[in-house]
From TrEMBL:
The keyword Cytoplasm does not apply. One of its GO terms (cellular component) is endoplasmic reticulum membrane. Keywords: Endoplasmic reticulum, Heme, Iron, Membrane, Metal-binding, Microsome, Monooxygenase, Oxidoreductase, Signal. It comes from Hyalella azteca. One of its GO terms (biological process) is organic acid metabolic process. May be involved in the metabolism of insect hormones and in the breakdown of synthetic insecticides. Coiled coil: none annotated. InterPro entries: Cyt_P450, Cyt_P450_CS, Cyt_P450_E_grp-I, Cyt_P450_sf, Cytochrome_P450_fam2. Belongs to the cytochrome P450 family. This is Cytochrome P450 2L1. The gene is LOC108667158. It is found in: Endoplasmic reticulum membrane; Microsome membrane. Transmembrane segments: none annotated. One of its GO terms (molecular function) is oxidoreductase activity, acting on paired donors, with incorporation or reduction of molecular oxygen, reduced flavin or flavoprotein as one donor, and incorporation of one atom of oxygen. Its main location: endoplasmic reticulum.
């Protein structure tokens, strides 16, 4: 019980039950409710895991910029598919993280991130998406599976030279895993992450309380998928002709064979591939749900964007990144989607690697640090009328030029672990959104009201509800 006591001068927070603490915060709205009660910095404990939540943009930015907050908490490595659980980018730490992040950034850049041949690849997917949506012939459909395949195809071509058909069964299998992980991360099943002692329970009891052995099953299945892809690359590997990020890694791994301290390892490669799959496709796929939901909910913006596009892009040509200066509202719309949705409502957690101080409060070594992105994106100190969906906030006074947010925007995190795929994600969101607007009117079915602000939380994502929408081809 003594160990569970709040440290002295710890940030304020709700009453904690001895040993147990409190259940993890389930969604953005509960986080915001707690902010109103306890202020911009709050302390919260689940089992032995103490977290500090940051609700203010400036405090969060300053904190995440510091070296001592560049680690992730240990519990993230539970879902690592690296045998040693130390490699990869999203959940790794120290020299392993630095090494693997540098490798990924260098290779994503070499493979086209921010360059025009990547734009060509994205527009091939955008065109395929348009054709796929046309096949529904104006029928009301749930968010289509093709959203996930086009997002996966971009990152998977860079990582593994693979492009799937938009209705591929294989993608279905891979995505079943993602959905499973998302369910695990919601509610009860996530408790063993915060309270590791629960993992010591006999497996029958564990299964009965938390569902089956979800984390172990997930790791096994993901490892099988990734190992298959990497093994195939090792078989076909040609040192003079590296095809993709996996080949580049194999090249570095072979060149450093025999070196004592080389960090190029098969386990780390597996984890990098798994990280890029989840971070690189699932995010864009789910953000596209927000895009079409908000297009259907605010058709007046769709109409104005169509007018901008029609004025500069003939219907038989896809929108390109060069058109951006003529399409300020399209860019403003996608950035407002990122702000308004606050899809990753809490940033990927960090951990304090030493005893330290935030805003005058004591934060002990090992404390998890969470940034409440939803609260920051809806903070009236940084945004006028923050709950209003209002793309114009990112236009200049003459409404002819996009202006990037200066403060209060946190969609891609911040500091040394800021999202490595931000540039790629922004390219995809702009081009996929423009393609949909150029070719379709997105609408709810007749008589269906989608204007209720009722969102769902699955795992670490805040999403629009499952709405059937109509994609009516424009004449
Ligand atoms: C709309 C799309 C996306 C959103 C909203 C998003 C958001 C985020 C956020 C909030 C973080 C945590 C940053 C932090 O700790 O401060 C992150 C990390 C990361 N993202 Fe993204 N992301 C997106 C797309 C992508 C894409 C396309 C890639 C593919 C390359 C990617 C790769 C990563 C990786 C590897 C990390 C871990 C970075 C590290 O720990 O060093 N993300 N992302």
């Amino acid at each position: 019980v003594l160990r569970d006591r709040r440290p002295r001068n710890c940030p304020p927070g709700p009453v904690e039950i001895p040993f147990f603490g409190r259940l993890p915060i389930p969604n953005a709205e509960v986080g915001e409710h707690l902010r109103k009660k306890y202020g911009d910095i709050m302390s919260y404990r689940t089992g032995p895991t103490r977290s500090v939540f940051l609700f203010d943009y400036n405090t969060a930015r300053e904190t995440l910029a510091k070296m001592e907050f560049s680690n992730r908490p240990d519990f993230i490595s539970v879902i690592s598919i690296d045998d040693q659980k130390i490699g990869g980018v999203v959940g790794s730490n120290g020299v392993h993280w630095q090494h693997d992040r540098r490798f990924v950034l260098r290779n994503l850049r070499n493979l086209g991130m921010g360059k025009c041949y990547l734009e060509v690849a994205i527009n091939i997917e955008a065109k395929a998406l348009v054709e796929d949506l046309k096949k529904y012939g104006g029928e009301a459909i749930n968010y289509p599976d093709s959203f996930r395949t086009v997002a996966l195809n971009i990152i998977w071509q860079m990582v593994a030279s693979t492009r799937y058909d938009l209705r591929s069964e294989e993608v279905e299998t891979i995505y079943r895993l993602t959905e499973k992980l998302r369910r695990i991360l919601t509610g009860w099943s996530s408790l063993p992450l915060f309270i590791p002692a629960l993992n010591k329970l006999p497996s029958s009891i564990k299964s009965a309380i938390f569902g089956d052995d979800v984390f172990r099953n997930f790791v096994e299945e993901m490892k099988n998928i990734v190992s298959g892809v990497v093994d195939k690359h090792l078989e076909d590997y040609d040192p003079d002709n590296p095809r993709d990020l996996i080949d580049e890694y194999i090249k570095d791994m072979k060149e450093s064979e025999g070196e004592d301290n080389s960090l190029f390892r098969r386990g780390a490669l597996n984890q990098i591939v798994s990280d890029l799959f989840f971070a690189g496709s699932d995010t864009v796929y789910n953000m596209m749900k927000w895009v079409v939901y908000l297009l259907a909910r605010y058709p007046e913006y769709a109409t104005r964007m169509q007018q901008q596009i029609d004025a500069v892009v003939p219907r038989d040509r896809m929108v390109s990144l060069d058109d951006k200066p003529s399409l300020p509202l399209v860019e403003a719309f996608t950035v407002e989607v990122l702000r308004y949705s606050a899809m990753t409502f809490f940033n990927v957690p960090r951990a304090a690697d030493s005893d330290t101080i935030i805003d005058g409060f004591f934060v002990a070594k090992g404390t998890t640090v969470e940034v409440a992105i939803y609260s920051i994106h809806h903070d009236p100190r940084y945004w006028d009328d923050p709950h209003k969906f209002y793309p114009e906030r990112f236009l200049d006074n003459s409404a002819t030029k996009y202006t990037a947010p200066k403060q209060g925007f946190f969609a891609f995190g911040s500091g040394r672990r800021q999202c490595v795929g931000e540039l790629l994600a922004r390219m995809e969101l702009f081009l996929f959104t423009a393609a949909i607007i150029q070719h379709f009117e997105v609408r709810p079915p007749h008589g269906v009201d989608i204007s209720r602000d009722k969102y769902v939380t699955t795992g670490n994502f805040r999403l629009p509800p499952d709405n059937k929408l109509i994609y009516k081809p424009r004449i």
